[in-house]
Fold:
Amino acid sequence: MTRPQIYAHRGFSHRFPENTLLAFEQAALAGADGVEFDIHLAADGVPVVVHDLPLGRTVKGTGLVPSWRSDQLAAMDAGTHKGAEFTGIGVPSLRDVFEWSRGNRLRMNVEIKAGPQAYAGLELAVVDLVREFALFDRVVVSAFDHYTLLRLRDLEPRIETAILVAGTLVRSWDYVAAIGARGIHFHAGCPIPAEDIAELQRRGIALRVWTVNEPAHLQHFIAQKMDAIITDCPDRALQLCS
Structure:
């Protein structure tokens, strides 16, 4: 059986500060096939890698991400929340991650976040960077805001997109086709019915499930032949795949 690809959720976030270059580097060392991470738009129009819109949980700062320039966010502490030994690790930009990716062949799942309203220009900024680094075969863009995916498709149809869902869809293959996406990233707590999985796989629609950490759940989705499993624990997932 071909094993699913293992994507490290926000990097190797079980052990290292999430959405940092260190977490991505450690995911690569652990043998992950890809990394998943989140982006917002900083005040200077630069996509930055951080999950939460408000600062404070993982990044030592106040206010909202788009209130700060990318260089200011890079200087903030995004490591201490995981341990004092990680103090001083900053918030990377999407460019930083793409620069890092030159040294490996990992896939990258870029999740576009949004504030109360969509960020004007964020899709174009992502497209420009994917083009600059020629990463069409290594990047998949996902979002809960599916209008974001439509805008990105119109800008650059060569970039693979996938809908993020935390519920169930009836005839999801029709919906995916209607917006020009190529995959579904679904929450492990809202599994897709087995007959729908078979139909989606028959149609060549990629299925990636998030966030799966417990051994029994990992084994379940490995057996279902997912295209990818997104996990905080890539080492554990890879061990179970062997």
Observations:
- The first strand starts at residue 5 and ends at 9.
- The mean pLDDT is 97.
